[in-house]
Amino acid sequence: MSGAGGPTVSRGNPGLREQKKRETRQSISDHATRLFLERGFDATTIADIAAASRVAKMTVTNYFPRKEDLALDHHEAFVAGLADTVAERAPGESALAALRRSFLDAVDRRDPVIGFSGPEFARMVAGSPTLVVRLRELHQQREEALAAALAAETGAGPDDIAPRVAAAQLGGAHRVLFAELQRRVLAGHDEERTAAEMALLGRETFTMLEPALGDYAVRAD
């Protein structure tokens, strides 16, 4: 029975269950980030995070199978981002043009996925050998996802190395830009200045790739 004008809510309401899961996941992530910043990533245990979040250790690992995923909680968006941009590019737009546009838009938004993370978080990542290795793995996974997307978009066969070569160049450009942004964040540069510099570097970087990739993977009108 519901109150006047209100909906009937069931204990089994899937919408409420999903909302509760999202809230629990966000709470665990928030507590983990706080502890990582206070103690360092390597010094913080899953048990510490579970206690702070008031959940069981198994609950933490159910939501975050790897401890690194608690720190790099944008990892799924990071890995899929370049491939998704290529898959969603406009008619007449090349893969290079789409990725340049997407990067510059992300700079305008100060998107944490491309490295606008704040100096404390950047120091925490840079100070953990485990996270440095994990970040390298994510860069590699992102390049592999991009190569698969380019192969699908161009109809390349399994023996065609063109998508992998293009992905290596485009993924490498993003890797360099990520490192440049992190260097500025770690140095404590003003965010507005950093964004202006990264926009210039982004344009310069993608312009350098234009002779090789400007006409590659152009979506048909």
Description:
This protein is mostly helical and 221 residues long. It has two domains: 14-66, Orthogonal Bundle (Arc Repressor Mutant, subunit A), CATH 1.10.10.60; 75-212, Tetracycline Repressor, domain 2 (Orthogonal Bundle). The protein has helices at residues 14-39, 46-53, 57-63, 67-71, 75-87, 95-109, 119-126, 129-154, 162-186, 191-213. Helix 1 crosses helix 2 (46-53), helix 8 runs antiparallel to helix 9 and helix 9 (162-186) runs antiparallel to helix 10.
What is the fold's blueprint, element by element?
Elements: H1 14-39, H2 46-53, H3 57-63, H4 67-71, H5 75-87, H6 95-109, H7 119-126, H8 129-154, H9 162-186, H10 191-213
Question: Share of helix among residues?
Answer: over 70%
Total count of helical runs of at least 4 residues: 10
Task: Give average pLDDT, whole number.
Answer: 93
Question: So, CATH architecture of the largest domain?
Answer: Orthogonal Bundle
CATH topology of the largest domain: Tetracycline Repressor, domain 2
Structural class: mainly alpha
The ordered string of helix (H) and strand (E) elements is: HHHHHHHHHH
| Fourth CATH level, the homologous superfamily of the largest domain | Tetracycline Repressor, domain 2
Largest sheet: none
Termini Cα gap: 55 Å
Shape field: globular
CATH class of the largest domain: Mainly Alpha
Keywords: DNA-binding, Transcription, Transcription regulation
Protein name: TetR/AcrR family transcriptional regulator
Organism: Streptomyces pactum
InterPro entries: Homeodomain-like_sf, HTH-type_TetR-like_transc_reg, HTH_TetR
